[in-house]
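@channel sequence for tomorrow's demo:
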Amino acid sequence: MRVLLVEDEKALAETIRRGLVNEGFVVDVAHDGVTGQWLATESPYDVIVLDIMLPGRNGYDVLRNIRGLEIWAPTLMLTAKDGEYDQTDAFELGADDYLTKPFSFIVLVARLRALVRRGAPARPVSLTVGSLHLDPNKRVVTRQGHRISLTAKEFAVLQFMMRHPEVVLSKAEILDNVWDPNFDGSDNIVEVYIGYLRRKIDAAFGVTSLETVRGMGYRLMPVSGGTPQGDVAG
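structure tokens (generated this afternoon):
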């Protein structure tokens, strides 16, 4: 089971990390909200432990942003603050559980195992464009029944495009709907990820569904069939 722990108190984070590793978890750690959000968008996690009071970006904003990107990993909010108002905020933003410091490590582990067993809550229905199928709940993409491995960001770009099949989407539209609102890099990042997706969903199957419309953007077209051209798992 893979856990993302976002906690700025480094000694506490290390104590939690060691304890979770001893319990059989694989743990990635971030000490600020910006790094935590980036990790959440780049790798799939079975559960996220997210402190509220974080440097760079607070836990509320991180949670809001990852849910906006349709990252549904069960999330437990961890904070020194205690009050009904904080809990209400967390749950309204999409948190699945809430634990106040100081806490029992045994209780933390029990809560995390319960969240992992429960899995991500039911989310939007599966999407199909031609022979391409995307299941948001299981975070699985297939073409002709063959599973395609995507990073979290690749998955998010593809999901947005599959929601708008045969529609030309500009770089700005994709950037606004998939990347963090505070992203200040070049919109050429969209072109980079379109290239990644083409190799995985098209070239790997000998089809062309992801088109470039010169001067306007990109369009995902339904195509039938598709024969795997070797290993399509990576």
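heads up for whoever presents: The chain is about 40% helix and 20% strand.
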